[in-house]
Design a protein that fits this description.
- The chain has one domain: 3-Layer(aba) Sandwich (Rossmann fold), CATH 3.40.50.
- The protein contains 9 helices and 8 strands.
- The longest helix is centred in the C-terminal third of the chain and has 15 residues.
- It is globular.
- The structure holds BIS(adenosine)-5'-pentaphosphate, magnesium ion and zinc ion (ZN).
- The site of BIS(adenosine)-5'-pentaphosphate has 36 residues, from helix 1, helix 2, helix 3, helix 6 and strand 6.
């Protein structure tokens, strides 16, 4: 099973992916997480990505396509994977189609999580992320049991650098311009399911699960 989670910053892609990988036993490919780990390690990839990410801009297509190609061909992805935050441009979507053709697989469903812009800003500015395992929380909507401590691994929670109000606004502009055209792209292919992401986390999860099980839009 190959699933793409599409949606603006703060839509809940990571939050839902955490639950979906457990439920369906899939590999998890989140380009944002991979790039943040690279920035933290100071690797050449991290050095290349850092400025783009801090400014809320997209990292160049060829860089992220390279990352995803390598991950999708790794053994843990043989049984299926969830792509979170990729593709993000039409060029990335076309490159993905080519990689999938090479490895003889295809996309099962693209889940587009729709959320109102005001709500996205509230979600992102209150988000906290685990430094160790990248689990996601919200100070109000999804708080950890112990303040600033990850429920899953005991790691310290922090605020992402790109979750400041001004960078969030820029990320939304970039999404509308560069990523939103993918909604049409996948709709034309008959792969798109639109989910109302303004609701509770668990309600959204059950809607996504039933869409995956019935293959419906
Ligand atoms: P990335 O890490 O992918 O960020 P993003 O797409 O902007 O999405 P977010 O992670 O901010 O949101 P999310 O939808 O995962 O929401 P979450 O579940 O955390 O990318 C970061 C950067 O990396 C990019 O700007 C770019 O520079 C670079 N990059 C990454 N991929 C790239 C690519 N393919 N090409 C080029 N560059 C790339 O939820 C948000 C908050 O809301 C949390 O606090 C959560 O607890 C809360 N929440 C979730 N669901 C609900 C709900 N239903 N109700 C209330 N609160 C909720
Ligand atoms: Mg995310
Ligand atoms: Zn953790």
């Amino acid at each position: 099973m190959l699933i793409i989670l599409l949606g603006p910053p703060g839509a809940g892609k990571g939050t839902q992916a955490e639950r979906l990988v457990k439920q369906y036993n899939l590999a998890y490919i989140a380009t944002g997480d991979i790039l943040r780990a690279a920035v933290k390690s100071g690797s050449p990839l991290g050095k290349q990505a850092k400025t783009f990410m801090e400014q809320g801009q997209l990292v160049p297509d060829e860089v992220v396509v390279g990352i995803v190609r390598e991950r999708l061909t790794a053994p843990d992805c043989a049984a299926g994977a969830i792509l979170d935050g990729f593709p993000r441009t039409v060029a990335q979507a076309q490159a993905l189609d080519q990689v999938l053709e090479e490895i003889g697989t295809k996309i099962d469903r693209v889940i587009h999580i729709e959320v109102d812009e005001e709500e996205l800003i509230t979600r992102l500015t209150g988000r906290r992320v685990c430094r160790e395992c990248a689990a996601t929380y919200h100070i109000k909507f999804n708080p950890p049991k112990v303040r600033n401590v990850c429920d899953q691994c005991g790691g310290e929670l922090y605020q992402r650098e790109d979750d400041s109000l001004s960078t969030v606004q820029e990320r939304l502009v970039v999404y509308n311009k560069q990523t939103a055209p993918l909604i049409d792209y996948y709709n034309r292919e008959g792969l798109l399911t639109v989910i109302d992401g303004n609701r509770e986390i668990e309600q959204i999860f059950s809607q996504i699960s039933s869409a995956l099980e019935t293959g419906s839009s």
